[in-house]
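Workshop exercise sheet. Pairs work together: one partner reads the sequence aloud, the other fills in the structure field after running the prediction. Swap roles for the next sheet.
Pair: D.N. / O.F.
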Amino acid sequence: MNIKELDPESSAQAAFGARLRRERLARGWKQEDLSARMGISSGHISGVETARKMPSLRFAKAADVVFGTTDQVATFEREWHEMQHGSLLEGFPEYVGYEGRASEIRLFESGVIPGPLQTREYASALADSAARRGEITPEQASEQVDFLIERQAALTRSSPPLIIAVLDESCIRRPVGGPEVMGAQLERLVEFAGLPNSGLQIAPFSMGEQQPFIRLVHLLTMSDRSVMSYVESQTHGHLDREMPSVLPLVRSYHQLQIEAVSQAESVAMIQQARKGNL
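Structure field:
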């Protein structure tokens, strides 16, 4: 029987297929055996292994379950995200894989609303603007928005995580997408604040130098109570699981929450901003 050999270096899709075959053969399974375990046809598995067919997100997640790679850093799901969303910052797809399984998520953002709280229209306005500047293609802009919606869906699972968001005041003052888009986005924030598994605070401009962060900082607490951080520069994202470097960010985030205004005051600020936006 002739087996098509793939060069994993030729493409992300070929690397995915080669890894799938390698993991299957290491266990002595035939494609039919893997088919029964994944609940996916052997023909489709063959197509993925030979890079003739593109795996779906469902396929990648099923592979992680079957091969026991769900809690690894290099999951099949992560490879799928990197394959589908090559325009995303380095490190971000890996972060999203953990975010979808976290029990607690703490967000800080300056200038723009954090992705998990964005409306599709707000996200599209940001992505389309990046495309007009030539930073990404229109196709990548569309992919980024679709990826965000998938990411948000993972956070509305049957046992949703606790999500705490502290936003710099600039997030609600900076107009994005025009009055209608911005108005709907601010309303989304008010709705988020009313959820039982959420917390929302505004870090006002008056905090001045007391604000510890100047750019995006996300903190994840996993089900085993381990904590990791994700921070971004303009061109790079960094996921950190080392406690000596993560704990200072956790402490700074707690200090930020102490200095930020209460949720009730924050909602009032957002509603005032929305009235001014109309």
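Discussion prompt: Residues 114 and 194 are 17 Å apart (CA to CA). What would you look at next?
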